[in-house]
Write a structure and sequence with these properties.
- It is a single chain.
- This protein is an alpha+beta fold and 396 residues long.
- The chain has 3 domains: 1-29; 43-48 and 141-386, Penicillin V Acylase, Chain A (4-Layer Sandwich), CATH 3.60.60.10; 62-136, no CATH class.
- Helix content is 34%, strand content 23%.
């Protein structure tokens, strides 16, 4: 175990050295001029849609989606278990999943208990592994989200979902293996009740929380990971040993988007709800000025709320994975390129085309980028496109 931890630390140090300013000149550039030609994306990159019938029993809702995806889910879960195996003996990791996580299903609120059990039954994947698969996304997503308002007051919300850093480098193809395996699992989900659409979200098959979602005509939201010592994996450990005051981010956001009635009440809820993990919640509405970055710690603390303020020149908000009032680290600055491209686009050109071009510009788009989601609350549209980044592309 100790040798594996040392190896991981060394790998991390080499990564930082690789992309340090003194080394950067020895490698191909990872940046490019702001793109104007990425939209419309290829038709074959558009993600399909699965209708989730909330009138069905929770145990049955996901069967039609996950059953044909079972083999791909099993490969992903094995990769996640291999990562856990870096820190503990592989056998112990399997026991941790199968013996400790399965009973935790009883601690989740409904309908999530029933949905997790239904996914396990439909796929033949042990329940503990299904739980691991669902909590892993709480602490391992690296993203870029933005909300922008055009000159008429119309709002657009978009995000890149980046996933897979340090999880299996494919030397031959120069890609991150887990990132490549995740893309086939991406699906848009349309939540329906009484035959009517009540919400939309972007999911990975088998993941039942929401980290990208929209209530047509009301609001949109996305979640980016926040790197803090408190929360994250520590929050998972605390949950396992019985400290369960907080709630899982993915469940909170799914509840928020499905039950939302207006922007302001949802903003208030998301600034104070008790969370197990820190994060950035990016919220968009349907009226001028309805946009926010909520910087959350664990518990009930919101460290900062940054609002859209078009009257004073703040017509867009950009969030990556670092506090927006601080400079991002030199080795992962996606904020500056995104900001530059938003300013180049200008408010006069805000729309799906311009925003997709911004999110398709390196290094905002990078080797970890699995998809770009475009949300237009007023029109009720959520379109998701798979993203790929040809070399040279950050990171590596």
């Amino acid at each position: 175990m100790d040798a594996k931890i040392v190896l991981l630390v060394k790998f991390s140090i080499l990564f930082l050295l690789y992309i340090s300013p003194t080394k950067a000149q020895e490698f191909p550039p990872f940046t490019e001029d702001c793109r104007t030609d990425a939209y419309p994306p290829p038709v074959n990159t558009k993600v399909g849609t699965y209708v989730l019938n909330l009138d069905q029993a929770p145990e049955d809702r996901w069967t039609g989606l996950v059953k044909p995806m079972a083999d791909k889910m099993k490969i992903m879960i094995q990769d996640i278990k291999d990562l856990v195996g870096i820190f503990v003996n592989e056998t112990k990791a399997i026991n941790l999943v199968d013996e400790l996580l399965a009973p935790l299903t009883d601690t989740f609120p409904e309908p999530y208990q029933g949905e997790l059990r239904g996914i396990a039954n439909a796929t033949g994947i042990p329940l503990g592994e299904v739980v691991l698969y669902n909590i892993f996304y709480e602490v391992f997503t690296v993203c870029t989200s933005l909300v922008a308002q055009d000159k008429t007051g119309d709002l657009f919300h978009a995000r890149n979902l980046d996933f897979g850093l340090f999880l299996g480098w494919d030397v031959k193809n120069q890609t991150w293996a887990l990132t490549e395996r995740l893309r086939p699992l991406i699906i848009n989900v349309e939540y329906q009740q009484g035959g009517k659409t009540v919400a939309k979200g972007v999911h990975f098959a088998g993941y039942i929380g929401v980290i990208t979602g929209m209530k047509p005509g009301v609001l949109s939201l996305s979640m980016n990971e926040r790197f803090q010592l408190e929360g994250g994996f520590i929050g998972i450990i605390e949950w396992i040993i019985g400290q369960r005051d907080g709630q899982w981010m993915g469940f909170v956001l799914r509840d928020a988007v499905v039950k939302a009635t207006d922007f302001n009440s949802t903003l208030q809820y998301l600034t104070s709800v008790d969370l197990l993990a820190p994060g950035y919640i990016i919220l968009g509405g349907n009226s001028s000025g309805e946009g926010a970055i909520i910087t959350r710690s664990v518990g009930t603390k919101a460290d900062n709320v940054k609002m859209l303020d078009p009257a004073h020149g703040t017509w867009y908000l950009v969030e990556t994975n670092y506090d927006n009032w601080k400079n991002p680290p030199f080795f992962d600055d996606r904020r500056a390129p995104a900001t530059k491209c938003m300013n180049t686009m200008s408010q006069a050109n805000v729309g799906l085309k311009g925003i997709f071009n911004v999110l398709s510009t390196k290094p905002v788009r990078n080797l970890l980028t699995t998809y770009t989601a475009l949300m237009h609350v007023r029109n009720g549209t959520l379109d998701t496109y798979l993203q790929y980044c040809p070399q040279p592309c950050f990171p590596w």
